[in-house]
Amino acid sequence: MKREETNFKAGDPDILDEAPPAPKKGPRFFFLLVLLALLLVWSFEGARVKPAELVRGIPEIMTTLGRMLPPDFSKVTESTTPEVLFEPK
Questions:
Q1: CA separation for the pair 28, 39 (Å, rounded)
Q2: Is 24 exposed, middle or buried, given 0-12, 13-18 or 19+ CB atoms closer than 10 A?
Q3: For the segment 2-26, what is each residue's pLDDT rounded down to a tens digit?
Q4: Which of 1, 20, 22, 25 is close enough to 29 for a disulfide, judged by CB 3.0 to 4.6 Å?
Q5: CB neighbour list of residue 49: distance below 8 Å, 6 or more residues apart
Q6: pTM of the predicted model as reported, rounded to 2 decimal places
Q7: CB 51, CB 44: distance < 8 Å
Q8: Helix, strand, coil fractions of the chain, as percent rounded to 5
Q9: Cα pseudo-dihedral 60, 63, 69, 72, rounded to 10
Q10: Nearest to 25 by CA among 34, 16, 17
């Protein structure tokens, strides 16, 4: 297979050399990550949410979303048209 020609010359700077360095994740980041996870667990406890039940309910959730999307506006009646709703009395 023939190698594609490039328009780069030997002296051209590499784009990765010009990119800013990746942000560093220090101890503060990991502390906040653990704090967020604990907050999530605490809120699940307070709301009595059981993750196992959520996972088991995924098929029903997908069925409901499948019936909702895309919306079927053919069932909208004439009484909900803007002319009828905003008609002066």
A1: 16
A2: exposed
A3: 555 666 666 677 777 777 888 888 9
A4: 25
A5: 43
A6: 0.44
A7: yes
A8: 55, 0, 45
A9: -120
A10: 34
At 51, which amino acid appears?
P
Distance (Å, whole) CA 35 – CA 30: 8
CA distance 55 to 50: 9
Tokens matching residue 68: 């909702």
> Are 84 and 78 within 8 A, CB to CB?
yes
CA gap 38, 32 in Å, rounded: 10
**Any idea what the Cα angle at residue 76 is, between residues 71 and 78, rounded to 5°?**
155
Longest dimension (CA), the chain: 79
Residue with tokens 């895309």: 70
Q: Which amino acid is at 75?
A: K
Two tokens, residue 22: 């990746």
